[in-house]
Please model this.
Amino acid sequence: MPMQCAAAVFPPTTKALCSVRKLTNLAQLAQWQAEIETRARPIAFVPTMGNLHAGHLHLAAQAQALTAKPLVLVSIFVNPLQFNDVADLARYPRTLDDDLARLHEAGVDAVFVPPVDALLPEAENHGVRIDPGPLAERWEGAARPGHFAGMATIVAKLLHLIRPQFALFGEKDFQQLAIVQAMVRDLNFPVDILAVPTQRAPDGLALSSRNRFLNEDERATAPKLYAQLVQAAGALTVAESVESVLHKARAELTTAGFIVDYFTLCDATSLQPLSRLSANSVLLAAAQLGAVRLIDNLRISP
Ligand code: AMP
Model:
């Protein structure tokens, strides 16, 4: 990957400008904010849980490409509130040194890596939560109770602390994006939420930190999830019945070895199921392959 740090883009400069600034607590974040105040540039914020891959780096690159020329801050925080399974939290990949090297190479301006107790000083009895409302009831919300309340609570905290003008989220996590957009709209957060298209491996598999848990056979099977989304979208646009298209896709995935949780056509804003294609439709899918839960989606219109 070519070096794209500030030194390469805006010479002459110093080595310091070329390093990503690592902020490990709230005081360091506040100090950085005070330092950048005079530069009159907005902040574009990319929240992540680390174990960065090309999908995350694409979000950072999109932030850097904004015409407002923001300073780009990436956060890395494995949020315990959004895991409803302690084993899943414990095994979530943590690769901080690699992540920092990638962010350095990508030329982002700062990375915020708070320890858990900096954001959740009373982790055990952190009682106040954002209620994500009806958007969180179905799909991932049904499979992972409390997940979206935990996600929204930490995203709200990060938005308050960082005060960005822009925050970028991947369409890969379509329901998460819809909930964040609704939270920002309904609670009047002063931030623009920007949606970034899903980045995929050449065979179509959506990039994800969890893909590393697929064994060789599962990795070879995994792209069938996206292939079925593409096939279903094609069938729906030539007016096949929604029910039969969805049924066929679920059956094919089951035959291929997936345990399908949902494969559904929804309104892209309300996430309510649709019985016919509309101008604002999305196919949402989640399926278990071995030990890995894969999610993916595809926007379609008639
Ligand atoms: P995570 O670290 O999994 O919480 O993801 C952090 C952000 O990166 C979220 O906004 C995700 O939607 C986004 N993201 C994850 N995978 C991809 C991908 N393959 N393409 C685009 N964005 C992604």
